[in-house]
Amino acid sequence: MKPDLLQRGTSGIGVALFVASVAIGGAITAILRNPAGVMAGALAGLYFIFAIKVADQWEKVAVLRFGRYIGLRGPGIFHIIPIVDQLSRVVDQRVRVANVSAESTLTRDTVPVDVDAIVFWMVWNPEKSILEVQDFDMAITMSAQTALRESIGRHELHQMVAEREMLGHELQRILDAKTNPWGITVQSVEIRDVQIPSALQDAMSREAQAERERRARTILGLAETEISDSFAKAAATYRDNPVALHLRAMNMLYEAIKEKGSMVIVPSSAVETMGLGGTLATAALGGAKPQ
């Protein structure tokens, strides 16, 4: 955390004014030959050291005079009255990041999970964040952890794993509604990681493998059913049309003997049944080499 203005020590401008005041006091002492000039210059320089403050471009700080709020200061150089005025902690108005985690939190289906998330937030009203909340950094972190645990308890494991973006939007909405009265807005929440026990991971892996095996067997059974239906339709066609059966047989023989060097042995009864005797003899004579 960046230190407050009171904890940073003197500013460069205060030191420069201190040196200038001492130098002017020394010059006055040299002219008047009176040490009061140096003493007055030193006192003025000490006043400037403690009275001049500088805030960076992204910073705001509240000034309390005798314990009462009188306004915000910064960015840039500003002046306070030492001892009378007090400064609050510096408010950084840039977008900030808070890491939150929930360990061994049960989901809706009673599965213990470890969830890590990142909260992006910023202070849009420094006055409210200073006056309404004692430690808004701690408030943001604790609120985010509580909201994360509550959200995990409302969702099942498959939602935590598959719908991280939805869970992040839900957390952002819950946190923003809680922090807006503090002058703080939660811009987004991102779920970085969802971890489950190793034993449960093995069980889920086996379950997924069994589910894939079941689908594969179902698809294979459907394929067998479609093939058997096709065979039944083909058998009915061949039964009523012998010529189609003969043509199919001839096609099968052609596919079997079209490769060079192949030999197919066909029973004579099958040849006579299909009427292929003359056809095969003609093919044999045509393929015989002359002596």
Note down, in words, how this protein is organized:
The protein has helices at 12-32, 36-51, 126-132, 136-154, 157-162, 164-179, 198-240, 242-257, 268-274, 277-287; strands at residues 52-55, 59-65, 68-73, 76-79, 85-87, 91-92, 96-106, 112-123, 184-195. Strand 7 and strand 8 form a beta hairpin. The strands form 3 sheets. Strands 2, 3, 5 and 6 form a 4-stranded antiparallel sheet that branches. A 3-stranded antiparallel sheet has the order 7-8-9. Among the domains are: 5-91, no CATH class; 96-196, 2-Layer Sandwich (Tetrahydropterin Synthase, Chain A), CATH 3.30.479. It is of the alpha+beta class and 291 residues long. It is 56% helix and 21% strand.
CATH topology of the domain at 96-196: Tetrahydropterin Synthase, Chain A
Q: Provide the CATH top-level class of the domain at 96-196.
A: Alpha Beta
SS content category: alpha+beta
Q: Beta-strand level of the residues, as a percent range? A: 15-25%
SSE string, helices as H and strands as E? HHEEEEEEEEHHHHEHHHH
State the end-to-end CA separation: 106 Å
How many beta-strand runs?
Answer: 9
Helical residues, percent: 55-70%
In CATH terms, the superfamily of the domain at 96-196 is Band 7 domain
Question: What is the second-level CATH architecture of the domain at 96-196?
Answer: 2-Layer Sandwich
- Radius of gyration, Cα only, in angstroms? 45 Å
| Residue-averaged pLDDT | 80
Q: State the shape.
A: rod-shaped
How large is the count of helical segments? 10
